[in-house]
Amino acid sequence: MKYVIGVDLGTSAVKILLVNQHGEVAQEVSKSYPLIQEKTGYSEQNPQEWVDQTVAGLSDLLLDFKGNREDIQGISFSGQMHGLVLLDEDHEVLRHAILWNDTRTTAECKEIYDAVGKDRLLELTKNPALEGFTLPKILWVKKHESAIFGKASTFVLPKDYVRYKLTGKLHMEYSDAAGTLLLNVSEKAWSKEICDALDLNPELCPPLVESYDEVGTITEDIAEITGLSPETSVFAGGADNACGAIGSGILEDGKTLCSIGTSGVVLSYESSDDKDFGGKVHYFNHSSPEAFYTMGVTLSAGYSLTWFKDVFASEETFEDLLVDIGSVPVGSNGLLFTPYLVGERTPHADAAIRASFIGVDSSHERKDFVRAVLEGITFSLNESIDIFRQSGKTINTIVSIGGGAKNEDWLQMQADIFDAKIIRLASEQGPGMGAAMLAAYGCGWFASLQACADEFLKVDKEYLPNKDKAEKYKELFTIYQEIYEQTKGLNNKLLEYRK
Ligand SMILES: Nc1ncnc2c1ncn2[C@@H]1O[C@H](COP(=O)(O)OP(=O)(O)O)[C@@H](O)[C@H]1O
Ligand SMILES: O=C(CO)[C@@H](O)[C@H](O)COP(=O)(O)O
After folding, report:
1. Which value does ipTM take for this structure?
2. Substitution site in 17, 262, 414 for ligand 1 pocket (most atoms within 8 Å of beta carbon)
3. Which end of the chain is more exposed for a tag (fewer CB within 10 A), N or C?
4. C-alpha–C-alpha distance, residues 267 and 44, integer Å
């Protein structure tokens, strides 16, 4: 039997899947790492921790592997998007990576609009300037840490750095490059116009490859430490949402994905780059050939639940914390939650907004709060579904992946709030599976990613919307939507009191 490995460098952990030629997950390893949050709005990670935990995870995997290491033919990567990893001329890391959920760059977003023009930026990159994207982070370092920036010779994104450390070869691929705000998405080329307008040396931008391109093999050193064969082919991989889409079979028009990891994403396949969403949703290159996707992003989806667990139930597992939510009625007995713990992206691009519980009553128990958190996260994702439906898309079936797809009550809640059929696949690890599929396709096992999906992806269970609950959620959703406007001003007044 032959195998491939998919490495998903998430925000909470690196998840590594060993997948056989039939798409069965033979082994699975997860290794976590912390977020570094020095002050409000900041979110960083140490790239060395990604490398150490990936190498440790691969070593664990190989320790338990009973076959010949040469049978593991390929490895590829999926990674949290947008995070800035600045490298010097020896490709040493210059500072901690500034992540996708770091929102310190509101001033730099304005600078980009002033220099490039809002409409021109949308024409070139198909996206607006958002704090989470990479370009504003580059400008922030340039302005606030000029000594460090002076030493920078290039930048990469999180999984590109890990891949570099495993192969010694430095690249970026299109699906992740699209999230930098420096790529001309239609032309698949770095935008010299944007670099020039912002006085950035275009040489900073690394060489571009396709997600399924073979970029090298595992170095002798890494082979020795992990037990992998130095012959293992390494394929570039993709942005975690592009890989999540591949690993969920989102490979043709009309297919929709909901991913609840640290962030939350509603993603729709696009066969062309010519739709006009006016920047309301992100529009990026897919990891499958000549394709694109649009998506709306909730910054704190799974992160809201993790935050609640860390603060109020740190000793419990997610399973324990969620055990009673099925006994709480729709609407959590009058309690609503908005998941704006670190600001928001879709539909409110607002770095200053923060979360609220509305309607707290003396009768509320912990389980009401837990259900309200899940409902708030799901309402927030429903805002993106709303945008897609208003643009004319039909959304009646959604594949759900990520940590949030581990809980059955939450999957049913998604069906009721989205008023759509929810599909759970045999593995909820879409990005890791997508990365493995890129390796399988790259190895030549299949003629296309679709052929690979046909063999690899199996539906495990379907959740149909309950009519009564869906109706109640429609009413509650309109109340939920009011909370943003009602709390925006209050949050702005509280800004100066934050850490
Ligand atoms: N058993 C569970 N039930 C519901 N949600 C869970 C469970 N386990 C983890 N999660 C959620 O999944 C999130 C992590 O999902 P994951 O897809 O691994 O994220 P990432 O790719 O960002 O690292 C956590 O933030 C947590 O809220
Ligand atoms: O910023 C985005 C997408 O634009 C996030 O979706 C990141 O890509 C992080 O993903 P997870 O760690 O939540 O999977």
Report:
1. 0.98
2. 262
3. C
4. 25
